[in-house]
Design brief:
Length: 313
């Protein structure tokens, strides 16, 4: 186990190094001049050139990358070009809203998806199964911003039972916090729910055809016990895998959802940074998100031994 963890950590370091190179080169080659945006429309070419020099944008790509990666290795993600604040401080200010949205989404999506998948597998081939799978197809196909605007129109504008936009910290009351997160969490969780439900159904159908399930039925064991205690546990590894993989959808969906519902989170910070060509913020956020995703995948792999004792590393 220890050697496996060390190998995975080493692989993680290599992956993060490749990610950092890719992110830097992607932004370095992107069109647009942050110095021109920062200087304003009325700036002269001489003023823009002077600003570029002061920001170090005239240096070669190798020099700029080395300067940036050296700061990252010291725990410093750089300073925003426009606000002159630390990228880590800006992310910390926005992390509460994004973390709340992610937790609310996972709390809704995962239990609901597994429940729907188990029901669909138990009722495979029936009208219930077809309806649930139709929901999964629609949920996975419709873009998040379309779902978001529809929910805003339905629940916030037409029935006025939820706020249109904004975010309230949990320190100001759990009720207000949940009320502002309800529509964004449903929007973000729809695709996630659809993905997990489909994988759960497929895996459960395969497990329910095994001999030990037939033996449990022959012994007269209640169906709920067969589904939850035996079938779902043996189908757990693929389900846990897709939950971990689905985090990528969650991270990507945060950007769109926070923009639609005007949530001041890290995703909205990235959108604003892209519009202003604030490279340090974009690089820092993508690097942190990539690190979180890689670590979650490692945690997912290690959790297999808790679900299936036969798995050994």
């Amino acid at each position: 186990m220890l050697s496996y963890i060390l190998n995975r950590v080493g692989s993680t370091v290599i992956v993060m190094l490749l990610v950092s190179v890719f992110v830097f080169m992607l932004l370095y080659l992107a069109p647009g001049d942050p110095a021109a945006v920062l200087a304003g429309d009325n700036a002269t070419p001489e003023q823009v050139a002077k600003l570029r020099a002061s920001l170090g944008l005239n240096d070669s790509a190798l020099v700029q990358f080395w300067r940036w990666i050296s700061q990252v290795l010291q725990g410093n993600l750089g300073v925003s070009i426009f606000s002159n604040e630390s990228v880590l401080d800006l992310m910390a200010q926005r992390a509460g809203a994004t973390l709340s949205l992610a937790i609310a989404t996972m709390s809704i999506a995962v239990p609901l998806a597994i429940t729907l998948g188990v029901i669909a597998a138990h009722k495979a081939g029936t009208m219930t199964d077809r309806i649930l799978m139709l929901f999964s197809v629609v949920g996975f196909s419709v873009p998040a911003f379309v779902v978001g605007y529809f929910l805003v129109w339905l629940f916030a504008i037409k029935f006025q039972i939820a706020p249109v936009q904004g975010y309230v910290p949990i320190s100001e009351g759990i009720g207000a916090w949940l009320k502002h997160l309800a529509l964004p969490a449903i929007t973000l969780g729809l695709t996630y729910t659809a993905l997990i439900a489909r994988i759960t159904r497929a895996t459960m159908i395969e497990v329910l055809s095994e001999d030990f399930i037939r033996t449990a039925r022959a012994k007269g064991m209640p169906m709920i016990a067969i589904l939850l205690r035996h079938a779902l546990r043996n189908a757990g590894v693929p389900i846990i895998t897709v939950i971990g993989i689905g985090v990528a959808l969650l991270i990507g969906g945060v950007v769109v959802t926070e923009t639609v519902f005007n949530i001041p989170g890290v995703g909205r910070l990235v959108v604003d940074a892209i519009a202003r060509r604030d490279y340090p913020i974009i690089q820092g956020v993508i690097l942190v998100f990539s690190g979180i995703y890689v670590l979650l995948n490692l945690a997912t792999d290690l959790s297999y031994t808790l679900i299936d004792p036969r798995i050994r590393y």
